[in-house]
Amino acid sequence: AVIAARWHGGDVYFALDSTGYVGKVDSAGKVSLFAKGTSMWWPQDIVIVGAHAYISVYSSSGQNYRRILKMPLAGGAPEKFCGDGVPGSIDGACGAARFQFPAGMAHGPDGLLYVADVNANRIRTVDLKSQKAATLAGGGSGTQTKDGPVASAVLIEPRAIAFASDGALWFTQSNESALRRIKDGAVLTVVGGAAGGAGVKASGWADGPADTARLQSISGLTIVPTTGAIVWSEADGGRVRQLLGLNVQTLAGSGAAGYADGGGKAAAFNGPRFLSSDAHGRLYVADRQNNRIR
Predict the structure, then answer these.
(1) Distance in angstroms (rounded) separating the CA atoms of residues 189 and 193
(2) How far apart are CA 211 and CA 147, in angstroms?
(3) Would the pLDDT of 273 be above 90?
């Protein structure tokens, strides 16, 4: 099942979680599978930095598959880069660092690799040069979302990450279906969850102003460079939606699981996951249960 679709330089890189393959669709439409390693069970997301791809992997059935892999785009097998594979939440040198569930990633403007560590309820960073992991946000204690300084904020299952042009880090929070932002050292819940991060807003779905809109199992995330819109997928809701200004709008999907091309509510998805945008504002969505890139 295709879980990630990452546009880069005219190609779309994708990950198949249940088979452990990574491949690409080139600008001519040719599909090729170019990576499958014994350490690459259940890949989650892909980020391209320079001449390498970084791949987050997770397998609940194995003790040795929770790490970040590194693979040359020119070819070759993926190699272990950060995390010893054992479940945990330990910062420090990549060889001894531990992740619980590394999922969505983003390459930050500071050169760091940012990782949503879902089950650790943290957003982590990996310095690609010094090969050290650190915790950015999620050190607070509690079982409900809490906004505030990054050191004390509470995150509940962060899933995907994207950077805006102003340097703000946006992330999706799947458990409480919230869209949140980190800027100037503080975490703020912008859509979903509850105002001020005080608890869980009523479940369901609703477009409209950011402070009243409702989200449904929010998953992947990207920011469109041409408009600045924050766009996300909703796995259970079967929709692709956006925040533009202070208004939430559904771009595609009716909310019913299925497969159908078309515009707006005429389109149907089945478990859309990680997505990305190209330089022209076109979106690429990993439609997981339909085994398609849309």
Answers:
(1) 7
(2) 15
(3) yes
